[in-house]
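REQUEST ID: PR-0412
SUBMITTED BY: lab tech R.K.
PRIORITY: routine
TASK: structure prediction, single protein chain
INPUT:
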Amino acid sequence: MLIVGRRGLLAVAGLTLATGARAQGSQAISLVVGYSAGGSADLVSRIMASELSARLGRSVVVENVAGASGMIAFQRLASNRPDTSTLYFGGFDTVAVPMVNRNVRLDWERDTIPVSRTTIGGMTFVVPASSPYRDMAAFIAAARKDGSEARSYGSPGVASAQHFLGELIGERAGVKLLHSPYRGGNLVVNDLIAGNLDAAVLVDSTAIPPIQQGTLRALAVSSATRVPQLPDVPTLAELPGFEGVAFPLWQGIFVRTGTPDAFVQQLDTAIREALGTPAVQKQLSDAGFTASPLGGEAFRAFVRQQADGYRSIVTASKLSVE
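STATUS: complete
OUTPUT:
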């Protein structure tokens, strides 16, 4: 029989607590992504996961939880305990989908702490290379002449950022374009090249390869500045009637409301350090994104500003999803 005195009991208790703390500190972290493997969100999240693993001293594992326009992944975070075991890789959908789907009860301001923006990208309005429209003015003129929904545009789905941008373009141009939703950007490209669509809105990373191959023609980009790979393509803001219009595609990392401040600060620092390295910047640039860290209250203010823009599009176009 082993008899342990008071000092021995305290020592054993201290050892147990220290062991527990080390176990929690070494626990793997899930980076939850709302889309399947192989897409742009998955690609960026995997770059970030690798970098964060090295900087946090804990394994960060990407978990693809696809479905419901990213809302299943968001729900996964919102249902989780506010600890350090789960991160959420969100963006446009995090803010916009609850605006148009009243069945979604999630709220980014209530349910999350926005830790840091990671990247900024853009979208491109394209037509087939065989199209008679060589610029946006010609496309809009034809749409106005032929009437409501005489011109179609494809997107990767209802309530996607591409759908929102298509509706914004129609609203600013004073025409109603026919929206044709698909289940992915590559399917849109195939139908566009086949002549089954008049136009499409695609993320830059999807649009640039077929543009460079000569199968698609770009009429405008949604970013605030021209895209380096498409230097001759104007931004929407450069076009008459679209002054001030910019629609960035942004991505960032969120945690559950109530997550300890110390971990939030540690994570923000790690994200900034990762995005500051030339190797990561090149990886992201090759994928069509720009490293763009923005943390704390600045990130929260940015998301609020984007939300205001999305809300105005929803109101003008009466977008809704059941």
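NOTES: The first strand starts at residue 29 and ends at 33.
REVIEWED BY: pending
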